[in-house]
Amino acid sequence: MTLDAELRAFYTARQKQIPAETREIMRRAGQELADSGQADRALTVGERAPGFTLPTATGHPRSLNALLADGPVVLTFYRGAWCPYCNIALRSLQHHHEAITARGARLVAVSPQIPDESLTLTEKHHLAFDVLSDIGSDTAKQYGLAFDLPDDLAAVYDKLGFDLQRVNAGHPRTLPLPATYVIDRNGVIRWAFADADYTKRAEPADILAALDALL
Question: CATH number of the domain at 3-214, please?
Fold first, then answer.
């Protein structure tokens, strides 16, 4: 099963569990984000990837420059461990991690969560790649991915118990669009995926094809 098919199946099942009023708030917020053109403002192929130094789940700093010294980097942005679509996508990436490293690349995931949340996520899903904390979404902003939740959707997330105030260290409203980049050793983006729809993610097969194109 492709990642997209798995995400579609989860979405269909999930919709049956969500009250109609809540579904409408989510739908409206998603449409407004799509209409805003945020995804079109995200960095894309041919642009230079902004550098960063962010803490891993265990608090160790990890820089893009250091990662690129070993080869290409697959950089993926996700919303957080509270997002079931993110968890599905990260598990899929873990499944393809060996194929990514076999191509000489490093995989890293970035979210606005605090390191403790990233550590729990890493242990729960047995992730073999670095999960970095972008508190305040400063790195996501540099990549053109950061946006603020509308009031009604933020209230829904609070009601669902996501506690973004705590897990995002006082930045509960700012999240990144789901996005994945393949960055070559010179720091240039060679493949890009960004979508305003949080239920859609980069297909691992496409990531592997992009890495093959670098060889």
Answer: 3.40.30.10
